[in-house]
Each structure stands twice: as C-alpha cells, then as structure tokens.
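Technical annex, item 7. During the second reporting period the consortium partners agreed on a shared format for inverse folding records so that results from different sites could be compared directly. Each record opens with the tokenized structure and is followed by the designed sequence. A conforming record, contributed by the partner at site C, is shown below for reference.
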C-alpha cells in the first residue's frame, strides 16, 4: 500500500512520540529529528517513493545528494542517524518487514576542537552583562545568567529552566537537571552567589507585583510571559550576542556553549582533574570530556608560537 503525504507525517509523529516516551529524548533532539526526517520525506516523495517502499539505494542516494549540496559530515551523520532510527522503529513496530537503513555506514564526523574563550574575554563579557539592560532588573538578570553559566558550565537549556527553588537560601551548591533527567550538584563561586542573590530580590519583587495584579507567576528562576514560563534558549542566545558586542568580544566567538567550553578549559588549565570536570559538566562518558585536553594543548602550542623568541626561526 502506498503511503500518502499525511501517512508519512504520521509515521514521523508516532516515531517522535516513541522517542520521547521510551528514551526521554530532549526537546532539542526531537526537533532535530523532525527537521531531518521532513527533509528526507520531501526528497523521496519527489521521486515517487514513500517510507514503506524506500530502499537502501534510495537512502544512499539521498545522502549523496546531501553531500553534493555541501552539507558538513556532522549534518549528514545526524540525518542518517535520524533515518536509521525511524526505520528501526518501523521494523520493530511491524510497519515494515525489513530495515533498509541497517547496513548503511555514516560519513563519520570531522574532529574539530570546540571553540573557547580566554579568561580576559570572559571577564569582559561578565562586566558587559552588568552594564547592559534597559533597567536595573534587566542588568541584574543578565549578570546572574552569565555568572551562573561561567561558574557552573551548565548547558543553556539547563540554565533557562532552573527552578527558583534551586537558588533559594544563598546556596553553595546548586542542583542541575541534566540530559535524561539526571541530576548533578555544581558549586557556585562567590560572584555567582552574589549575582543570584541580587537577581532574586528583583525577580521576587516583580513576581509579587504580578500576583497582586492577578497575573500568573512562574516557578522558574528566569521567568517569562511565554508558554514555557521561562526565558527561552533563543532569547538568551540573542542576549549573549548583545552582551558580547557591548563587551568588545567578537560575537562570532560567543555562544552559550562556548561559555561552557571556557568553564571546562579554564578549570583544566588551573589544575582540575578530568573526572571532576566530567562530573561538573554532566558528561556520561569521560571521552567526551577529554576533548578539553586537546583544546589546552592547542592553546599552549599557539602560545609558544606567538611568544617564544625562536618561534620565527
């Protein structure tokens, strides 16, 4: 039986529901799967093929097309991963009698070192966050978010969704809910604790006023009037770009994730051990954390090339 366009969309929707329920996949992961599978669906539809009839040759032709369009290895590997999981789901759910993606090997990933920031650049960003904002409340929030991000190495999704209860009582440690619902405790630096206390005063005052006016209040440390109830990742991404401009740091270098990389790299440079950094970052596998040793090696090598008197010989 030939699947219609709607039928294929239902396949994707059912697959995503299963991923969410069974594997506790994050919202970002599900959105990425949805985009990749929609692109694959549209490509095979234009060739008169559907999910029920797609062959290994169809999938490989799609990947060749992605390569011809100049997509990076990481993008092609991610798209193949989504396709593989869709067809594995279809096979296990008895929607197909075979799995056409089973034997297809991915292109691998380019081994690129994560971008990071120097300690001086981070200092400029923290200073800029304290100065940037329409009013004192905005400046207090910006300072708190940047201080927490650098002090803890949190992922941006973890930062924006922090419950306010995690920050009550001037804590020395803060509980973070990571990927897959895994919790971890991370220590707060004195500047981060001070910034959090300052922001809490502003936040609670605004929330109390909202409650008096009959408006809903938020359970999150960084409230927002949107449907999520907290500041979104996208809003913070644009905010950190504004902060970088204000601080004179190249915005192309600055993202929430480069702050996370800076946290890890600076700790390692100052003598922290990899196991401790792995725990603080919430990495399931220490091999993920080991990339920072290579980042440090590269920075030390560049330091020698830039400053050693014999480097130009």
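Designed sequence (site C submission):
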């Amino acid at each position: 039986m030939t699947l219609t366009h709607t039928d294929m969309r239902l396949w994707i929707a059912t697959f995503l529901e299963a991923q969410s329920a069974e594997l506790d996949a994050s919202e970002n992961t599900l959105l990425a799967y949805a985009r990749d599978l929609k692109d694959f669906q549209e490509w095979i539809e234009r060739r008169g093929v559907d999910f029920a009839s797609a062959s290994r040759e169809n999938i490989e032709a799609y990947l060749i097309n992605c390569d011809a369009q100049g997509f990076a290895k990481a993008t092609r590997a991610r798209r193949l991963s989504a396709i593989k999981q869709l067809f594995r789901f279809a096979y296990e759910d008895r929607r197909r009698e075979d799995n056409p993606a089973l034997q297809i090997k991915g292109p691998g990933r380019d081994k690129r070192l994560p971008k990071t920031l120097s300690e001086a650049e981070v200092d400029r960003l923290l200073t800029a966050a304290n100065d940037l904002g329409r009013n004192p409340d905005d400046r207090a929030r910006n300072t708190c978010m940047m201080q927490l991000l650098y002090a803890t190495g949190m992922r941006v999704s973890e930062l924006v969704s922090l419950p306010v209860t995690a920050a009550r009582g001037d804590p020395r440690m803060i509980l973070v809910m990571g990927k897959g619902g895994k919790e971890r405790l991370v220590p707060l630096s004195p500047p981060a604790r001070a910034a959090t206390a300052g922001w809490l005063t502003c936040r609670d005052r605004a929330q109390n006023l909202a409650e008096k006016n009959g408006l809903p209040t938020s359970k999150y440390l960084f409230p927002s009037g949107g449907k999520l109830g907290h500041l979104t990742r996208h809003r913070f991404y644009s905010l950190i770009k504004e902060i970088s401009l204000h601080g004179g740091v190249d915005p192309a270098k600055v993202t929430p994730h480069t702050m996370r990389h800076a946290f890890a790299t600076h700790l390692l440079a100052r003598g922290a051990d990899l196991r401790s950094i792995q725990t603080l970052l919430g990495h399931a596998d220490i091999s993920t954390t080991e990339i920072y040793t290579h980042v440090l090696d590269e920075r030390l090598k560049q330091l020698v090339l830039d400053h050693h008197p014999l480097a130009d010989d």
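The chain has two domains: 5-92, 119-307. Confidence is low (pLDDT under 50) at residues 303-308. All partners now use this format for quarterly exchanges.
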